[in-house]
Amino acid sequence: MPILEHDVALREYNTLGLAVRARRLVRCRSAADVAWAVALARREGWQRLVLGGGSNVVFTGDFAGLVLRMESRGMALAGRDARSRLVRIAAGEDWHGVVMATLARGWPGLENLALIPGTVGAAPVQNIGAYGVELESRFESLRAFDTQAGRVLQMDHGACGFGYRDSVFKRNPGRFVILEVTLRLPLVHAPVTTYADVRDTLLARGITQPSAQDIAAIVIAARRSKLPDPALLGNVGSFFKNPIVSAARMAALQAAHPGLNGHIQADGNFKLAAAWLIDQAGWKGRRVGAAAVHERHALVLVNRGGATSDEVARLATTIRADIRRRYAIDLEVEPVFV
Ligand SMILES: Cc1cc2nc3c(=O)[nH]c(=O)nc-3n(C[C@H](O)[C@H](O)[C@H](O)COP(=O)(O)OP(=O)(O)OC[C@H]3O[C@@H](n4cnc5c(N)ncnc54)[C@H](O)[C@@H]3O)c2cc1C
Q1: Nearest-CA residue for atom 47 of ligand 1
Q2: If you placed Cys at 298, which of 83, 227, 274, 279 could pair as Cys (CB 3.0 to 4.6 Å)?
Q3: Domain 4-70 carries which CATH code?
Q4: Where are the domains of the chain?
Q5: What is the DSSP track for 86-121?
């Protein structure tokens, strides 16, 4: 039986570095631990929060319920066919560690997703994506504890309802606790070089047939140059999602704001760069108390030291109101507010 810990500091468990506390916490290393913690919370009437690396949560204050911290470990080859291999990974594993471990074994497929903080179990929650690849394109299935049914389920791609930074898990907060994820990785490396950072660097280096390691190295260097390291400066990565607008709306916006760019989507809509909107509105470097917009990346809100939940929330709300006023666009927050 796991140990029930009381009055636990969460500052080290959220990358924004907010100094909040949890009334109770259980470290879950198995499905049995999760079932035990869920049953306990139900019996006692406590609210539950599943926490991985805390790199996509914003605490709005102390958490009065029970935190289930996912700390299960393990990665194994689970199968192979003519074109791909299946890799099964425990929810508590560190995502970037897994990316590097697969590459070290000569298994390509995750290189574009290198250096994304957090755990494997959280990766399907917002269908993590970067540099032209989303988790769902490497996803086979997962096992989750369904807290409504009180049993472990196997969920395939269709059951997860993936979208842009979205999934059935994000739309039903708290219902499923993801226990392990199985990825389908290609046997033959098919480089994804659609993003300018990757393409231009390969071109500059004269690399025409990049290995998965080449791409991982470029992605890691690009991310390090742009994004603050949460170990040094508290943040949760992108604070807002990139808004999606219709082609007609895009044309009107471009007429009013020359310089505004968008990526056309498969359905004909356009994805705008939220960072551009915020940058143009002059937000880089501005702060509310110790919560600030990063100087180099307008999409990243940072904790300059001792920021409170309230300061972060006020900064985010003010930015959203300003973007709505200037562009009539409602920015959607990416991290989960707890
Ligand atoms: C510097 C930085 C860069 C980032 N870059 C990117 C990026 O490029 N692309 C991207 O998509 N994201 C990015 N992120 C966001 C973040 O890394 C991802 O969302 C990551 O998957 C969160 O993992 P976590 O373990 O920290 O989740 P947490 O923050 O602990 O949890 C996030 C949500 O998932 C839920 N959850 C966590 N684990 C489980 C589980 N096992 N079962 C069910 N629910 C669970 C939590 O309850 C919460 O609602 C970045 C963050 C930072 C700080």
Answers
A1: 50
A2: 279
A3: 3.30.43.10
A4: 4-70, 75-186, 234-337
A5: EEEEETTSBHHHHHHHHHHTT--S-GGGTT--SBTT
